[in-house]
Amino acid sequence: MAEHDLHDYSRALVTDIQALADAEGGSIPNTFTQHVLEILEEAGVVTDAALAYHSSRGLEIYGYGLPEDGSSLDLYTTDFNLTPMSSKLTKAESDRLFRRLFAFVGKHAAIRPNQEDNTDVHDMCVGVEKALSNVPKIRLFLLSNRVSTTSAPGPGEFEGIPVTHELWDLARLHRHETSGSIGEPIKVTFERPLPCLAAHSDEPNYSVVLAVIPGRQLAELYKEHRTRLLELNVRSFLQTRGGVNKGIRETLLKDPSRFLAYNNGVTATASDVDFETDEHGSPVAIRSMTGLQIVNGGQTTASLHHVLTHDKRDLDGVHVQMKLTIVDPAYLSEIVPRISQYSNTQNKVTLVDFSSNHEFHVAFERVSRSLWAPATDGSGQETRWFYERARGQYTDKSAEHETRAAQRKFKLITPSRQRFSKSDLATFVHSWEQLPYWVSRGAQKNFGHFMERIEKSDPVVDVQYCKRAIATAILFQAADRIARAHSAGSHKRLITTYTVARLSLAAEKRIDLDRIWNEQGTTDALEDALDELCPLIMETVISGDRHVSEWAKKPDCWDEVSRIPWTLPDALTAELTTEPFEIASPESTESDEAEAAVEDIPSEEWQALADWAREGRLLRAVDRQLADRVAQRLSQGRRVTGAQARQAMEVYEEALRHGFHPSPVGLDHETA
Amino acid sequence: MIDESVWQELEAHQQTPGRSTRRLHPDSQHDIQVSVTHPALRRMLLLGTDARTADTVRQEIHELPATRGLQLNLSSVSGNHYELQVMLTDDELTEVFTPLVSDIAEVVRDAPTTETAAEAAVRRYVRWQQLLRSVSRDGLSRQARCGLFGELHFLLEYVLPAVDQHTAVSSWTGPRQTNQDFQLPGAAVEVKTTTARSPRTVQIASERQLDTADSTPLALAHVVLDDRQSGLGRSLNALVDEIRARLTSPSAAQRFESLLVQAGYLPNQRDLYDHDRYTLRRSEFWTVGEGFPRIIEAELPPGVGNCTYTIDVSALTAHSVTAETLVDLIRGTHG
User: Fold this and answer.
1) Residue A9: CB partners within 8 Å, gap ≥ 6?
2) What is the per-residue pLDDT for A636?
3) A299: nearest Cα among A210, A238, A355
4) Does A56 contact chain B (CB < 8 Å)?
5) Which DSSP state fits B138?
């Protein structure tokens, strides 16, 4: 991505945000908040973020995030300025904004009763209330499109919970957008050099040492960097939560000194290591490591962290063996996947390249930008759809045009409403492919799954493929407009993806995508069908007592939606094609791992879990029912498969977090 | 208009936690509701609005000072729907809250757009804040008391006998900070009250006060009072009670109460107004017309504004009218 200076970036940002807000009839600062959160979500800094605005005297909040893994409670506030370069965000201002945001933590209980049930703010109060009872930390984010003159305030606390401040100002956003990587490489310095054993290597590009690292240190590293520590860890990307392994946890709680004996340890890579050497120049201890990544042993790391923060154990006497490979960054992509693959004994991991350089994106960009979309507004002006393979491409491209006239022309040919990103594409295609619960899990997770599927199906990215993929975008946008007209409100995105998925199901994917491309729009019959379907979807997805965004992530929700009694109107049936359109349908990618894990737990234990949750009024009703179902199936000797198995394991871990004590189990073996 | 019974109905409305609401001015294009939360029984005025409007009033709300007992919040409901919440947070202001809510709702009702509605609501809220601050502890200032007495005296003696109750009460616009204190269908009247021994001048507060740009006849009334601590005269409370007794129509009575609050005469501060007694020394009336010595907006050089000035009463002899003529003006039967 080319460097364009901060001024251009800031101007483009304001223009973009205004255009987006206009198109949606949305609030400008809210649109900005949403935009930044998407960037941060893609970067793995935040997850599961939702918008909800509330302000009163001395208090203002724009949204909140409750990461699924319970690792923190995140609160967001925003400072958006239409002329961002005319002033700087001063220390006094940012302190005040943080203070007003923090006020919400103390006042949420008083705000809640004044809100109508199930409004954005009401849900936020409920979520925050729940989170405060068990989160290890609170993170306050200030998002600003001005340049800040200061760094974020130091840590504080709320009733014993540590509170940290994160300031994302214009400069930091710009750095992130232009470098494409978030933050600096992780650097670890050992106060007392860590003794190590080096294996001699003849290869110039890498060398390997063995060491034993204190468990507490590893847990703290994870606490500080979270998923960034696992960026190269294939599995962590596929299942973004660093799951807590119950066996590992058990050992840590009951038998910490044997941990080294029972656990396989972690495999790490670093780009640079500073050694203490003996008189022969051989490494004997590690002073510091730069660019540290745990490529295998994510569960071990996450479980250590869990025991340290949730179970409040100090991990004294816990040691973890570490195999550290020093790899020249240029060879990372070659070596790391193999380390991961070979050190995973149980089942082969397909390595998915999540970067923008994956051949699929390169091909999609090349082909899609060669297409001219037919002119449909009578102006005769053909246009292009702009696939943003990497962030900021559109802005860059537009900035390449020297004169204003040339820029105007670029915007005319490539209107910003026809620009879409990698994660947008994944959203459009997955809605069509009837995976709305994946779309509902957020941009990052959905995109990860999309890439897995691409990896498996390996589609031929040709003109026809791109046209049809863009047709799904047009369909999605039409559904989105209709959902807005039905006041789907803050759940619009969920409603849209479910509406498209349900339509695709009813039509057996035989909606004429080629026609949508040729007309660059949807037919009246199609619009009417969406219009009829949308309220039915809303009834099922937004139902009174559930937390909507959580419910939408569950396959059960899709089950229920697919059972809505609805058939295509005749007018639309008449327009269907004879053959279905498949955009990217590999065979099932359900991991067998969760299935195996579910079966490792006896059915009695599942039943005990369900009963325990009911007595203590813990977990959500849907989760308790799932535990019941799993117990029942296992006792009948039937299998629990796919998404349901994964879901079940999440419920199981959730129960552990709430203090459910399973019956004792024997030794465990950690693999990845 | 709303009164205590509306709140009580909402309070009795439900047993489950949540909000019970009632829409006000269903004929208005704006979504205005009064609401009570359960079980806390917190009273609120709610105004539904959209995201873009929320953007326009956001900053203003931030800069509002604190008022004990009142709160103004902005909250997102879902998507692009927002809600302005005016909330009563202290029982002490309960009686004030009802007229406050009616007033804000009334101003919002006829606003042409969502944006002007929200802005008007915030503006009115600020007005109420100022009012409550100004009478915070010791009630109205000495000057404000005497001004209020003068206006009420004029209402009782000249307006109520001349027109029906509704028209009379509605015509009293002083508390709403309009240019003149009384705006009747046929005429406007500005009432000046003084306790000076032998007043030579009247104080005019702005170039608009004596401006008859809209061609409605305009009169100036001068009420000269004698004020004593616990003398033989009439207290402000006595005068208020007398007017109350005259108002037989419930809606006129309610409107009058609301106007009293807007004038800063708060129910919970009644005791403060028992001691001061006023006796009327004399009243004078003039009609403002051709040749009347005054400053009007149209004649000001560009850039000049906010004029306060005094007029020597001796210069007004030619414009003097009798009480009968004044009542004719008020009736609209003059000329």
Assistant:
1) A170, A174, A177, A178, A395
2) 66
3) A238
4) yes
5) T
